[in-house]
Amino acid sequence: MDNQLVLLIEDDPEIVRILQAYFERDGFRTIAAGDAETGLAHHQRLRPDLVVLDIKLPRMDGYDVLAAIRRVADTPVIMVTALAEDLDKLQALRLGADDYVVKPFNPLEVVARARAILRRSLGHQNPAVTRIGPLTIDADAHIATVDSGAGAQVLALTRTEFRLLSHMARAPNRVFDRGELVDACLPEGEALDRTVDSHVSNLRRKLAKAGAEGLLSGVRGVGYRLGLPHE
């Protein structure tokens, strides 16, 4: 479950700092947004594994953000708010929140609840093993193999290459732009579009050598897609 992306939509910088520290210490990646519009844009572009959402946000409240998320995705959402009334909790749950934490909170509890929600979500979705044509990605074992007909060949991937492959495998045939891949997969010190190109080039070479040529392709002026060439 490590390396999953948590989107924090919260306008209090101190709360963001604390939550980021605790989530990242527990093996998660995080990205933060201080307002609803930015949060929804991050959600659409990055497709996080979980959202931690404040209710009191500038210009647009968390209920509206939650409703907007639920119109397009079933991403797990934890509401974090100073509103402790039962009616507020019921409103959040009715709109599709997975959990509700009242401020002041223990950040360890928020991380523990996030892990519990993601475990339940994974139990329903079973995304640990993904298959795209001859390619099999086992996220739990951190192994990617290609079956070329003569048996499965394990790909010798760097950590960043495996992140890129796993991220794109979540949505086969979708085109991912370079900026999204930078935000979702690259370490902070490598956050450059041309660095993505270098990693993807190495990844394509390794896939081709293992017998999966054409599985990872570039879309000129946009980015990259992972999928069978004829699809």
Say how many strands there are: 12
Q: Strand sequence of the main sheet, in spatial order?
A: 2-1-3-4-5
CATH hierarchy: architecture of the largest domain:
3-Layer(aba) Sandwich
Count of alpha and pi helical runs: 8
What is the mean predicted local confidence, pLDDT? 86
- H/E order of the elements? EHEHEHEHEHEEEEHEHHEE
What is the rounded Rg?
19 Å
Helix content: 40-55%
Name of the CATH homologous superfamily of the largest domain? Response regulator
List the helices and strands and how they pair.
Elements: E1 5-9, H1 13-25, E2 29-33, H2 36-46, E3 50-54, H3 62-72, E4 77-81, H4 86-94, E5 99-102, H5 107-125, E6 129-132, E7 135-138, E8 143-147, E9 152-154, H6 159-169, E10 175-177, H7 178-185, H8 193-209, E11 216-219, E12 223-226
Parallel strand pairs: 1-2, 1-3, 3-4, 4-5
Antiparallel strand pairs: 6-7, 7-8, 8-9, 10-12, 11-12
Helix pairs in contact: 1-5, 2-3, 6-8, 7-8
Question: Could you characterize the architecture of this molecule?
Answer:
The chain is of the alpha/beta class and 231 residues long. It has 2 domains: 5-125, 3-Layer(aba) Sandwich (Rossmann fold); 129-226, Orthogonal Bundle (Arc Repressor Mutant, subunit A). It is 43% helix and 22% strand. It has 8 helices and 12 strands. The chain has helices spanning 13-25, 36-46, 62-72, 86-94, 107-125, 159-169, 178-185, 193-209; strands at 5-9, 29-33, 50-54, 77-81, 99-102, 129-132, 135-138, 143-147, 152-154, 175-177, 216-219, 223-226. A 5-stranded parallel β-sheet has the order 2-1-3-4-5, sandwiched between helices. Strand 11 and strand 12 form a beta hairpin. Helix 2 (36-46) packs parallel to helix 3, helix 6 crosses helix 8 (193-209) and helix 7 packs across helix 8 (193-209). The chain is elongated.
